[in-house]
Amino acid sequence: MNDDDLNELIDAFTAECEEFLQSMETNLLAMESAGLKERQAAVKEMFRAAHSIKGAGSMLGFQNVSVAAHTLEDCFVILRDRTDLSALEPTTVSVLLQGVDALKKITIESVQHSDVTTPDQTENLEAIAQIFAQLQAKYGKSEPAPVPAVSQSAAPETLKQIFEHQVPALFNRLETELSQASEADLAKSVTALNQVYYQLSGLAGMLLLPEFGEIAAALRALIDSPDLTLQRLQSEGWAIAQNLQIARQQILEGRAIDLPEISPSPTPPDSPRLPDSPTPPDSPRLPDSPTPPEISLSPSPTPPEISPSPSPTVPPSSTLPVPNPQRPTIRVDLERLTELVNLVGELVINRTNLELQESELRGEVKRIRRNIVDLSQFGGQLREEYDRLSFAEWRGGNGNSGLGKLAAAETEFPTIANGKSSPAHAHFDILEMDRYTEFHSTAAEVIETAQAISHSATKLDTLAMKFERSTDQLRRITEQLRSRVMQLRVVSFSRAVDHLPRALREMCLTYDKEVNLLLVGRDTKIDESLLDALRDPLIHLVRNAFDHGIEMPEVRKASGKPASGQIEIEARHQGGQTIITVADDGRGIDPEMIRRKVVTKGLATEEQAQEFSIAELYDFLFWSGFSTTEGVSDLSGRGVGLDVVRTNLRTVRGSVKVDSRLGKGTSFIIKLPLLLSITDALMVRTDHNKIAVPLDAVEEILHIKASEVHIAGNQPMLWWREEFIRLVRMQDLLEYSVVGPDAPSPDPLTQDEIPVLVLASTEGMLAVAVERLIGQQEIVVKPLPPPLSKPRGVLGTTILGDGRVVNILDVDDLVGQPGVNSSIAAVSGKVQEIPPSSSQSPQILVVDDSYTIRQLLSLTLTRARYRVVQAKDGVDALEKLQNGLDCSLAIVDIEMPRMDGFELLRSIRSTERFAKIPVAMLTSRSGEKHRQMAMELGANQYFTKPYSEAQLLQAIPKLIHQSII
What we know:
There is one protein chain. By secondary structure, the chain is an alpha/beta fold. The chain is built from 29 helices and 23 strands.
C-alpha cells in the first residue's frame, strides 16, 4: 500500500467518523422527546456507531480513537442494559454529548498527528473515562464477562480465511521492503515499514489477537530507533518476519501463539516462505558489528473490561468481519470537476440545437414531399394532355388530313428516331404504332425526375427518422450524464444543519428558553462547495432568531402564544436556485426602532430616515457594527452576525432578504445559485422578446377574457381559486431597455383571449399577462458572471438552440417587488412617464481608478438614461469640475492615486461653486470608520462593493432631487 492509498483510507475513515459522530449526536438529541421504543432503537444505533469507529480506528492504527470509542461504547452498554430509558434524565444526555465531543476531538487530533498522544488527547481520554465512571456510579456496576482468548482456542473459520488469503500479501510486502532496503533509501524503507506496522497492528486489534499485536509492536520499536542502521533493520526485521510467519502458522492450526526466543540473523532464516515472496540477498555480516539484542515478547496486557450484556452470546465467527473487496477510487481536483459540469451544460445546449435542426429537417422533408406530389401530378397531366391532343387531331381529320395535321405537329415537335428509319414504319397507322415527339419525351422526363426526387425524399424521410431516434437517445444519455455528474458535487442539505439542534439545545439550557427547531427539506441536494459558505450564516441566523426573535416563555404566554417558540429552516429548489428560509414565530422586527437607530448612529439625518422604505431599513441590519440591541451579550449586541451572513453569501453569488411582521415573526430568505441548473421553462413572448419562466414557479396557465378582469381601485385583479389575486402585464414588471422593432408592443389585455400565468413564490401569488405562449423547453440556467450584479427580476440567461440569448425570470423578485401593486396602464388609464431625452437627463460624474468599474457603472447609468462623465482619480475629477463640468451627482471611490476620495470630497465641500453637488461614495471599504469619515466630510450616501445595481439606481433620483432643492 503506497502513501496515496493510505491517505485515501484515512480520508474515508475521517468522513465515516463524521457521519457516525453526527448520528450519535442526532440520536441523543432525539431521545429527549422520543418514546421508549424510539429511545431503545437510538441506543442500539449509537452502540453500533461507536463499535464501528472502534474497529475502523484499530484497523488503521489509531489506538487512541479505538480506546475512546470502546469506552463510549461501554457507556452505551450501560444506557442500554442498566438504565430505565422511559425516565431518561437530561443530564445523562448532556454527559453523553460531552463524550461524543471528546471522541470527535480525539479523532481529529489522531488524524492530524498520526496517533501521537498529545496533552489534549490525554485530557479527552480522561474525560471519556470519567463519563464512564459517572454512569457506572449512577447506574451500578456489573461483573465483567470473561474475554475469550482467541489464540488459545481453535481458530474460527473467518479467522482462518483472513490469515490464509489476506495476510500473505502483507507479509510479502514486509519481506520485499526488507530485502530491497538500501542506505540511500533507508528513510523511504522506514516509511513503508511504518505503513506495514499500521496494518498489522490494526489487524491484531480488530481480531483481538494481542500476542500478534506484540510482534507488530516490535517492528514499530525497531523503525523508531534513533540509531537505526541498514544492517540492524535487516537483521532484526527478518527475525520479526520469522515470528510473524510462526504466529500465522499457529493460528491456522488453531493453537495459541507461542514464540521461542530467536536471535536475529543478517540473513532470512529457513522458515516456511509464502508463495511468490522475494528471496533476500545474502549479506555477509561485518566482523566488528555488535550482535543485536534478542527480541523477546512480553505477555500481552489484559484487554479493557466490557460490561455484560443480557443479549445472547454471539459466536466469534459471526462477530469477525468478512473481508470485502473495496472498489477502486480516484481523486479528482475540484476545478476539473467544475469544468466537467460546465461541459455538460454546453452539451445540453448543443443537444437543444440538434433538436431544433432535426425539427427543421422534418419540416423541409414534408415540404419537399408536397412539392414532389405537385410535380408528379403536373408531369402526368402534361403527358395526358399531349395524348389527348394527338388523338383529337387524328379523329378530326378526313383521310390524310389528320395525318397532315399530325405531320404539322411533328414539324413543330420532331419525331424521335428509335434506331430505325422513320419511313420504314410509314405504312403503320398512328393507332397501330405510337409516335413520340420531344414534347412527349420531355413530359416523361419530368415524371421520371419527380419519381427520382420522390425516392430521394423517402430516403431523406428515413434519415430524418433515424436522426430523431438518435436525438432521443442523445437526450437520454445527456440526462443520465448530467444526473451522474451532479451527484459528484451535491450533498444533502442535512450536512449544513445537523449540528444546529445541538447548538440550539445548549442555548435553551443556558438562557432558559423553550425553542423547537423544525428542519424541512433535509434531503434537498446542494453543491458541496456551498457548505462552508452556509454553515456560519445559518448559525448566526439561528442565534439571531433565538435572541432577537423568540420571546421568554412568560412573555409569549402573555401575548397568547405557546410558551415554546419555533424556528423553522426550509430548503428547496425553485427556478434554478436553492431557496433556504429561516423563520421564527417571535416578536418580529420593529422598523421604527431601526429608523431611530440609524439616526442615533449618524448614518442618516432624521429627514433622510423618514424617506427610507421598509426594505431599505431592513438593509441596515446587515451593516457591519449595526445592532438593534442596546447591550452586548454572549449572543448579540456586537453587530457582526448579519454582516457575516451577507459577506459569506456574496462569496458564492448568494443573496439574503428579510420579511417580518411585528408580533408574528421574521423570515430570512437566502437564495443560492445552483452549480449547474438544467430546468424546464415555459417560453413566452412579451414586448417583442422571448422570456423564459421557470416551470416550477408556474402554478397554472389560464386563457381568460377581458370581461373576467376586475378592478379594485387602480389595481386589476383576477378571481382565481376562490380569491382575488393581482394581475399585471409582463412588460410592466421588466424595466429594461431592449432594442426591438419600432412598432409599439402589443397590449395583451386587448386580445380576445388573454394568456395569463399564475406565478407562485415565497412572497405570494401573482397573475401575469403575456403576449403569447410559445411552449415548454429544457434550458441551462447561466448566472451572470462577476463583476456584473444581478438585475432585479432576472435570474440569469439561457442560450436557445438557434444561438439566441434569453433572460430567465426571477419569480421571487417579481412577485415581491413593490411595483407589482401598480396598475396596468391600459386598464386603469395610468399615464406612462416619458423618459427624459439625452439633453434633459442628469449628468453624473463617475470617479474611480479602476477602468472596469468605470465602464460597468457607465453602462448601468447609460441604460437608465443618464449622461455619464468619467474621471480616473480625484485630480482628474477636480479638473473637469473646474473646467465647467455641470453634473447633478458624483459617484466617488475612496482609494485612488494622486487624490483619494476623501480629499476630493473635502475639496468639493470647501468650494462654494461645487458645494451643493451630491456625492455618493462607492468603495470596497465597509468598515464603520470609513463610513463615519465619509459622512463627517459631507457624503450624501455610502455604497459598498460589490454594489446592488437596483439599490444604486433607486437611490440616484433621491440624491439628484436633493441637489435641485
